[in-house]
Amino acid sequence: MLGKLALYMEGLADRARAKKYRGRYNIHENAALGKLHITGMNVSIGKGTYYNSGYISAGKSPKVTIGAWSAIGYNVSIVASTHDVNFPTGPEELRPMHSGDVSIGDGVWIGNNVVILPGCKIGNFSVIGANSVVNADVPDFAICAGIPARVIRGKDKAECAAHVKFVTENK
């Protein structure tokens, strides 16, 4: 009984957090947010996208943009603003930040435990394998994995046609 109550209470907290984020950021009403923590100012999440759990750090000026109908796994960190390696600690107003906009296209699938670093653009209909660290741009229709993430192969656009049509028509 206590387990069911704990799950119920956790669900209430998740829904309250999602409602708060929708009021603060540009998050489509149809986007599904799991256990997600967001810091910063400029975050946009498109229609039909789900984000199971993780962290988005947008900072004061960098933007994080996630397109429509993307699938984001568990424990995914999107970091548009982070510590500078030469001055990583101390008062926030004194230390510089390493920052850059992060853009994730439409119809993207991001596996569990992925880290996306500042300044990266992930192209439309790409796949990022689990446990990857993305530190550079990913082209459209690419399958990437690894530390750092590298293109393993491209996707066959003809085989993706139904998915592309659905996403394009339902944005």
How would you briefly describe this protein structure?
With 171 residues, the chain is of the alpha/beta class. It contains 2 helices and 17 strands. 19% of the residues lie in helices and 35% in strands.
Explain this structure.
The protein is of the alpha/beta class. 19% of the residues lie in helices and 35% in strands. The strands form three sheets. Strands 2, 4, 6, 7, 11, 12, 14, 15, 16 and 17 form a ten-stranded mixed β-sheet that branches. Strand 16 and strand 17 form a beta hairpin. The radius of gyration is 17 Å and the shape is globular. The protein starts with a helix and ends with a helix.
Q: Based on CA inertia axes, which overall geometry fits? A: globular
- Termini Cα gap: 41 Å
**Spatial extent as radius of gyration:** 17 Å
In N-to-C order, the SSE pattern is: HEEEEEEEEEEEEEEEEEH
The assigned structural class equals alpha/beta
Q: How much of the polypeptide forms β-strand, as a percent range?
A: 35-45%
Low-confidence stretches: none
Count of DSSP-assigned helices: 2
What is the helical fraction, as a range of percent?
10-25%
Major β-sheet annotation: 10 strands, mixed
Write down how many β-strands occur, each being a DSSP E stretch of 2 or more residues.
Answer: 17
Question: Mean pLDDT across all residues, rounded?
Answer: 93
